[in-house]
Design brief:
heterodimer, A: mainly alpha, MetI-like fold, about 70% helix, about 0% strand, B: alpha/beta, D-Maltodextrin-Binding Protein, domain 2, 2 domains, ten-stranded mixed beta sheet, three-stranded antiparallel beta sheet
Chain lengths: ~250, ~300
Amino acid sequence: MNYNWNWNIFWAPAPDGTGVYFWWLITGLGWTLSTALLAWAIALTLGAAIGTLRTTPMKWAVRLGNAYVELFRNIPLLVQMFLWYFVLPELLPKALGDTMKQMTPPWASFWPAVLCLGFYTSARVAEQVRAGIQSLPRGQGMAATALGLTLPRTYRYVLLPQSFRIILPPLTSEFMNIIKNSSVALTIGLVELTARARAMQEFTFQVFEAFTAATVIYILVTLVVVIGMRWVEKKVAVPGLISASAPPLAGH
Amino acid sequence: MKRISRWFIALLVGCAVAGPACAQDTLKKIRDTGTITLGHRDSSIPFSYYDDKQQVVGYAMDICYKVVDAIKANLKLAKLDVKLNPVTSATRIPLMANGTIDLECGSTTNNLERQKQVWFATTHFVTANRFVSKKDANLKTVDDLKGKTVVSTSGTTNIKQANEINVEKKLGMNIIAAKDHAESFLTVETGRAVAFFMDDILLYSLVANSRNPSEWVISSDALSVEPYGIMMRKDDAAFKKVVNGAINNLYKSGEINKIYSKWFLAPVPPKGVNLNVPMGASFKKVVANPTDSGDPKDYQ
């Protein structure tokens, strides 16, 4: 390797005069987190709703939910990013499409990125919610009906509280995925963490330092998510119910 | 296995610490393997790109092949295989550092900050930050833009320089940022701005591909200049001497004019568009007195 390492590069002033390169990465991280968190809110809300719909006795709702999941799950994320960014404004009424295109940067790429990530991840969350509900013994729903609970109440008080506890670990993965997937938004011009690392190596040619820093920041952020979700798991655990925080069985 | 990994780590750490001492002898490597690997870009028209037959062509490629001939002669090799390896702006440094490519032939800006990482051969093109406007607007110098609305692409050094000169000369220009070059150009085309600041080579290409190339004019006034160079590993003086020697010979013999005309003053593949970029004064100076300086001051 003929490479000139320079770890002090992070404290060198960036060419746009807004501070040092380290600050560049931090502002990039800001965009990464705001994109991921907003998208995660969309993904959880829509995913929970659609996933629940897919387990109801209503045939049309199940079909609708299936179609939704397959649509958003079967198209590569990168392609979806382009569809939201380039194709959607053309399909909307002209005035609305022009407004979308003329939003000042970075909003013009921020909102499509949030929507794209939100909808894409919602399909994956929906699939997990469905699996969580269906993993419950059939007797649970029947018992609720026998007690005289209506369908919405059966979900609200019996099925969803249990299934959400079961699917917390895979939801943790989805939460981490949405943070990492937000890097795809750089293809539509959002200057988030990865884009910042790329720009930094463009200017300085210190490619390994730039991407090492980005890697470490991603790991730290996802570690925070893991620890946070572990805490949630412990907090909501019901003794006796299957949960990741249950002590492992002896001899396992 | 353990021993191999220990060696590997020792090598990595050793190179990281030793730095220049670990420099590779590229000429020796080329002699031993009988191959040279050229890094090229995939769509940097007309410097280095794939044409309609999926061949790598371009101005920088032609120069690189001349360099390859010189290396072959220098090493007295009967046969020298040329391998081509596509690179992007993100991969060119790692691939150069780990020895995958020996020369990078494209449109890479040579500046002092980058020279801490790699070396550049004699400058093979000089681009400058200029503005394009409609001919009938009659805008010749930056001062003509006083109080007008101008555009540049967000996140570029060009918009930064436009902002700087705006403050420095108290021009009172309203500078708007567009998201990409096409949009910036469109902003001027539709009359929402009168001028677009960008690297002149990109402006020439936008004009050449526009609906009516003859209605546009590119300013002779330049805010800054940027030399392009062929990249090679740092601290390999013997290799650089051969590379620079080959390029300087092209300049001395005047052969560069033929290569330049082929790519900048005649139709080029894939679409047969003529970019029509006459050789600028700064580059003419380089041809007369070859330099590989990364300091823009040396080109003004």
